[in-house]
Specification:
There is one protein chain. The chain is mostly helical. It is built from 21 helices and two strands. The longest helix has 13 residues. It is elongated, with a radius of gyration of 29 Å.
Length: 393
């Protein structure tokens, strides 16, 4: 009995475009025959020239990435993508990829200063919408984002109801990003969606199971805080770990925080410092602040005031109120071991920044500053009272 490949090859040789597509696909994937990208391109070309949209799309990807051809040919790739997207079948994946190209523009791989396809947000949006209407979940999600934020340069006005509609369609089609976004609607109860933490949990779980690091982190937070579910620190740590494995800074920080005290995971100060460091290097302000305090107090690592000051400065610049307060106190007194000289002006600036973000200790310190006219400021009972209220809230 002849194999399916042999049968399709005979039909392809007789000129059947669908069979030619199958043979091209078989050579590209190695399904039923030895993998041979150059033969895949040959058969895709025969089929594409007979207007087979799937072949036009696959051939375009080969040309775009230089697979099975001597070198990449973006112009031909764009031409085949347009044929597939604009043809009678309106190939969804071709339209989506064409939208991506229009969104960024395409430069000549050999002369980067030469544009082969000018950036065109309007055309990008048109093809995203076409792909979305044909069921491409990535395009549906991006269309949702366009309506969510509004894209003036693409003539798309903000429309939260349309955004929600497209997020729902993308989520129903399994798009993890859309499921994550949809969950937030059920958490906040916005745009006509009633608060439903159970539904939010379900969506986060579906996205997390697909490897979405933000959903994994959110799920960890729900389990840690007992929101919509019974508190379970082991599950929280497990989901934080999943996010950390993908380099997510928030999940990495949270896992470090639990690891430091042994909540839901084996206690290990060494491992906590490693996690804090990883998250800090990824720009997470709370991790930077936590790492600084470990260096300052010698928790899990040898005390190093200078490194503590360095990380406090980074965290403070990134807006962490705790780091701002700690650094303010160091500047107020001066700390030679940390390489910090007394500086009232800098200290006041940091206390004000921390208080602005609701740090009560910073607000309490400012009460005395304005009551007594410390740090070079004039006495101001009204301002002092404002900070007294803030400190007590």
């Amino acid at each position: 009995m002849a194999s399916e490949f042999t049968t399709k090859l005979t039909e392809a040789q007789a000129g059947d475009p669908n069979a030619q597509y199958y043979v091209g696909w078989a050579y590209e994937t190695g399904e039923g025959v030895g993998k041979d990208l150059s033969k895949a391109v040959e058969w895709y070309t025969n089929s594409a020239d007979q207007l087979n949209a799937s072949s036009q799309y696959n051939l375009a990807l080969c040309l775009l990435h230089g697979e099975g051809v001597a070198k990449p040919d973006p112009l031909k790739a764009i031409d085949y993508l347009k044929q597939a997207a604009d043809g009678s079948s309106a190939h969804a994946n071709a339209a989506f990829n064409l939208a991506l190209l229009y969104e960024e523009g395409v430069s000549d791989p050999e002369k980067s200063e030469t544009q082969l396809l000018e950036r065109n947000p309007v055309e990008a949006n048109r093809y995203y919408l076409l792909a979305a209407e044909k069921g491409n979940s990535d395009a549906q999600f991006r269309t949702g984002l366009a309506y969510y934020f509004g894209v003036p340069e693409a003539n798309v006005e903000e429309d939260q109801l349309k955004a929600l509609e497209w997020f729902k369609k993308a989520g129903e089609n399994g798009n993890a990003d859309a499921k994550f976004n949809l969950a937030s609607y059920y958490v906040t109860g916005s745009n006509g969606v009633e608060v439903d933490l159970g539904k939010a949990m379900d969506l986060y779980k579906e996205a997390a199971d697909k490897g979405h690091p933000l959903a994994q982190t959110a799920l960890g937070e729900f389990y840690e805080d007992g929101r919509g579910v019974k508190s379970d620190l082991e599950l929280a740590a497990r989901w934080y770990a999943a996010a950390a494995e993908q380099g997510n800074p928030v999940g990495t920080y949270h896992l470090g925080r639990l690891t430091l005290v042994g909540s839901g995971v084996q206690k290990s100060e060494d491992r906590a410092i490693e996690l804090y460091t990883n998250a800090a290097k990824l720009g997470h302000a709370e991790a930077q602040s936590a790492l600084a305090h470990c260096y300052l107090l010698g928790i899990g690592i040898e005390a190093d005031p200078k490194k503590a000051a360095e990380w406090l400065d980074v965290a403070a610049q990134n807006g962490d109120a705790r780091a701002q307060w700690t650094l303010a106190a160091l500047f107020e007194e001066g700390n030679p071991n940390a390489g910090i000289e007394k500086d009232d002006e800098k200290s006041l600036e940091l206390y004000l920044a921390a208080a602005q973000q609701g740090d009560r200790e910073a607000a309490a310190r400012l009460v005395k500053v304005f009551e007594e006219g410390q740090m070079g400021v004039k006495k101001d009972p009204a301002v002092a009272e404002k900070y007294r209220v803030a400190a007590s809230e």
